[in-house]
Amino acid sequence: MCGIIGIVGQPGSNVAADIYDGLLVLQHRGQDAAGIVTFDNGNLYHRRANGYVRDVFRKRHMKLLEGSVGIGHVRYPTAGTSSVSEAQPFYTNTPFGVSLAHNGNLNNTNEILSTLLEYDHRRINTSSDSEALLNLLAAEIQRSLNGRPGGMDALSADDIFRAVERTHIRADGTYSVVTTITGWGLVAFRDPHGIRPLCMGIREVDGFVERAIASESAALMALGFTLERDVEPGEAIVIRSDGSYFSKQCHAEPKYRPCIFEHVYFARPDSTIDGVSVHGARLRMGASLARRITEKYPDHEIDSVIPVPDSGCIAALELARELAVPYREGFVKNRYIGRTFIMPGQTQRLNSVRKKLNTIDSEFSGKTVLIVDDSIVRGNTSRRIVEMARESGAKKVYFASAAPPIIHPNVYGIDMPARQEYVAYNRTIDEICEVIGADHLIYQNLEDLVKACLGESDTHLATFDCSCFDGVYVTGGVSEEYLARIEAARNDGAKKKKKSAEA
To answer: Domains, the chain, ranges and CATH?
Structure first.
């Protein structure tokens, strides 16, 4: 999972400060590295490094990022390594100087690398699938020109659309992309299933329509852009430096299948993704959980509903309202600890949970509590949370997950662990309940989750990618051999070995 943003501002303006602020809003999507590319006429300016946005960019860096067109990226690595060399945006000189920021995960990277070398005579410098995607797109842009004279002046929006069409044919997996062609303009496109989010906003400055593309609408709104629409699956957007705007559907059979986990966990609640409010979706998750609890435990005697902050709070709020039970804040969160489920090694994750959450003892002492979290992955965090509730004097602990059991690997840009490390893998709900130490465990039903995320608005969504719950990979081509390969790279042992090698 990563966050991307691109802005085409009024000629003569500097967009770097807006891109920086947009990346701050998207920081939850990636804390490993950050980068910005801008250009002014034919001059390219680039800064990328490991770390949080505020640490990567100092005043001296921002002063050097000139130009009215630029893109930015915050990285959460799922493929490749954590090396600074894999921080984005990536850049290739040919043709014309192309920079790219990518959110997603390619499933046929090895095949792309082979064809890039054999047919396009391009070799990449890292193990990143994003650099492979950059060179694939650049090769297809060059092919679209077909040797026409005229240099950059000969490059048209139609050339870009042909290049994206070819990229769709050659690339399997997920990709929401913003890219710049130095001195020419910005290009954005989304994979044919629209699995990773991408939206567009506009604002008018002195009669000039500025445009921004971002992973989430919250970033656009924070910068004063009005959300115009989502980029469609398979669609490409071209925005020239002079503000000229073009769009085209570049895939013959796009199928809208956005990732449902955006609504469950990753996206900010103040974002609207594919026409659905994330906040509204999480409220409906809570309401459906309340119905399940009422049906299964009509005499529950729950004294209070307590969320695991932050992504469990909204579902818990509506759950409490539906149950007519008080909503209480029982955990205090240290907001300077990263996300625990992506940390390598069980010991590190458990230590992080202890540092991340503290209890307010009075909210647990002598009470029957219902703890609500967005999901349960490994179960380590859930088990420690239940232990903390009991240590604070809880009489009885119910535990509810706003998502169904996670039992399949995510191959589309979320670094979930190997199947054997999921607490729900080959376990019944009663067995999971015993593992985490709760008295009762309630999971969301998948059908109810889909209904909650579809919402009540008039969207053209029919369903979602729910692969980590149901094992249905909408892009196809995800074999057991492929899953075994990525699981071998993602298990705790492999991550620990990689981390030691990078140290």
So the answer is: 3-255 (3.60.20.10), 278-335+343-461 (3.40.50.2020)
